[in-house]
């Protein structure tokens, strides 16, 4: 018997949130959207996700109002997937999960660190800047860094290589869409 996708008997905001972002791959798609990944082909190559699953998750996140589709090409139609205000609101819990995973699960430390772009200070667990006394640094003011001293990503895909350089959240990757050349089956 397949596992359901809702928590109908749970009267809880967390259960409702998990119905939107709790399916496998959903939070990784949201994470990559914060990193500047916008195109179907780039999500596909960076996440190494089955095409049908990516299509379904992007559709669900778009329907739920976490992402919105923005046309970047008319013929054939092609779209960027951009975080909405509701999607951007997922930054605090996503950041906390990334930090928690780096400290308690990964074993080798974080694969990415997040810093207040204005002063360079690493964000605390809650996404604040201790140096500037900001309780929450807005995502556009957050710079993502790869702490690996040689600067090379652990993955070899072109999206990971583009993300190896310091990069502000929500800024689209340059050259995005050219990495994999895969088409978005949901764009027709």
Structural class from helices and strands?
alpha+beta
Low-confidence stretches: none
Overall average pLDDT: 87
Sheet with the most strands: spatial strand order = 3-4-5
Strand content: 5-15%
- The tally of helices reads 7
Radius of gyration: 17 Å
Q: Please identify the oligomeric state.
A: single chain
Task: List its salient traits.
188 residues; alpha+beta; three-stranded antiparallel beta sheet; two-stranded antiparallel ribbon; 5 strands
Tell me about this structure.
- It is a single chain.
- The protein has 188 residues and is α+β, with helices and mostly antiparallel strands.
- A hairpin with a 4-residue loop joins strand 1 (67-73) and strand 2.
- It is globular, with a radius of gyration of 17 Å.
- The strands form 2 sheets. The chain has a 3-stranded antiparallel beta sheet with strand order 3-4-5, with no helix packed on it. A two-stranded antiparallel ribbon has the order 1-2.
- The protein contains 7 helices and 5 strands.
Any chance you could write out the topology, listing elements then pairs?
Layout: H1 13-21, H2 26-35, H3 40-47, H4 51-63, E1 67-73, E2 78-83, H5 85-88, H6 91-104, E3 113-116, E4 142-145, H7 158-163, E5 167-168
Antiparallel strand pairs: 1-2, 3-4, 4-5
């Amino acid at each position: 018997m397949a596992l359901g996708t809702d928590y109908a008997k749970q009267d809880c905001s967390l259960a409702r949130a998990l119905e939107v972002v709790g399916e496998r791959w959903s939070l990784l798609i949201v994470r990559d959207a914060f990193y500047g990944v916008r195109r179907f082909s780039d999500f596909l190559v960076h996440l190494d996700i089955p095409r049908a699953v990516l299509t379904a998750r992007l559709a669900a996140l778009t329907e739920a109002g976490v992402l919105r589709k923005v046309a970047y090409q008319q013929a054939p139609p092609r779209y960027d997937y951009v975080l909405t205000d509701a999607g951007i609101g997922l930054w605090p819990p996503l950041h906390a999960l990334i930090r928690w995973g780096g400290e308690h699960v990964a074993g080798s430390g974080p694969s990415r660190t997040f810093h207040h772009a204005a002063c360079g200070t690493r964000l605390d667990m809650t996404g604040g800047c201790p140096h500037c006394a900001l309780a929450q640094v807005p995502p556009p003011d957050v710079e993502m860094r790869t702490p690996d001293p040689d600067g090379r990503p652990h993955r070899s895909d072109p999206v990971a290589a583009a993300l190896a350089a310091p990069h502000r959240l929500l800024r689209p990757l340059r050259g995005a869409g050219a990495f994999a050349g895969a088409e978005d089956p949901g764009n027709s």
